[in-house]
Amino acid sequence: MRFVIDTNLLVSAIISTGLPRQLLDAARAGEFELCTSEVLLAELLDVLGRGKFADRLARAGLSPKTLVDDLRGLAVMVAPAKVPRVVPTDPDDDHVLAAALAGAVDLIASGDRRDLLPLGSYAGIPIVTAREAMERIAG
Fold first, then answer.
1. How many CB atoms lie within 10 A of CB 108?
2. To 10 degrees, the CA torsion angle through 121, 8, 72, 59?
3. 20, 48, 45: which is closest to 34 by C-alpha?
4. Model confidence over 65-118: pLDDT tens digits?
5. Segments of 46-90 assigned E as strands
6. Whole-number Cα distances in Å, 41 to 57, 84, 131, 135
7. Which of 6, 1, 62, 8 is nearest to 26 (CA)?
């Protein structure tokens, strides 16, 4: 199985425990292949570098760059040929969809209840919560 994990879930996985962390741990354990792109990793680096996250990471002796580099080493990197214009309220989410297509993934895991999750799927690729992704791994 191959998944794209949206930036919001990756941030949650990095800064706290719970289902997003379990999902990332499952990728590290080889239970599925994590797919991502340089654009998505750049977004993650930007978010983790923001004040509240950067301070929290620094207190734990971590840096945003090291964390993103670790994910780059873990993930299958994809380079979408084009980025479809699908999510009118958040063009950054179009990069998630483009990475999913380029990686021929089985699902997109997201916590974005405003933009991505309401789509339900894109090009036949289900868009699910972290809980639903973990259920698919277990099933």
1. 28
2. -170
3. 20
4. 999 999 999 999 999 988 888 888 888 899 999 999 999 999 999 999 999 999
5. 76-78
6. 17, 18, 23, 25
7. 1
